[in-house]
Write a structure and sequence with these properties.
Length: 166
């Protein structure tokens, strides 16, 4: 992951595995239905649980929009941001939190769990995820400084582009 003001998101396999393990552990320990991580641009990073019947792409973008909208509300009342959002429904509830000012953690749960349990487990998992994303940011910075990170489009030539459209 790049700095907080950059939109590109770089992920390495090692960190992706650590992130996946952390959210799967959170799913079990919080007795939740679905957990997913989203970047602030609305891109889904990882998810686990009962995701088969969910439009995760829309959920990811709407969650990011929700965070952006409540960020505007926060500024209006003199807050930096609201780091936790909670939506209570008839059957399902959504707990949304910001991890390390970088990513959005979304937990969907029902009556098999409780808000207290989810909050407790999210707090613990957020610390773990925060460390992973911090290490990832450091790794990307080191790679950039050593010149090992290049644009994913570096190998594409003008001829390739011309061939694509001809």
């Amino acid at each position: 992951m790049l700095g907080p003001h950059q939109s590109s998101f770089v992920m390495y396999e090692e960190e992706f595995q650590l992130i996946s393990a952390a959210i799967e552990k959170l799913l079990r320990e919080s007795n939740s239905k679905v957990i997913f991580l989203v970047d602030k641009n609305g891109q889904l990073i990882a998810g686990c649980g009962e995701t088969e019947n969910l439009d995760t792409t829309s959920l990811a973008s709407l969650t990011a929009g929700n965070i952006a909208a409540t960020g505007g509300l926060a500024k209006l009342i003199g807050e930096k941001e609201f780091s936790i959002l909670f939506h209570e429904g008839e059957k399902d509830n959504i707990h949304i939190s910001i991890v390390g000012q970088r990513v959005i953690l979304v937990v969907i749960f029902d009556q098999r769990s409780s808000l207290g349990l989810v909050r407790l487990r999210v707090k613990k998992a957020s610390q773990e995820l925060g460390k992973i994303f911090e290490e990832l940011a450091n790794k990307v910075t080191l790679a950039e400084q050593s010149g090992k990170v290049e644009s994913p489009f570096a190998e594409i030539t003008d001829d390739d582009i011309d061939n694509l459209f001809s």
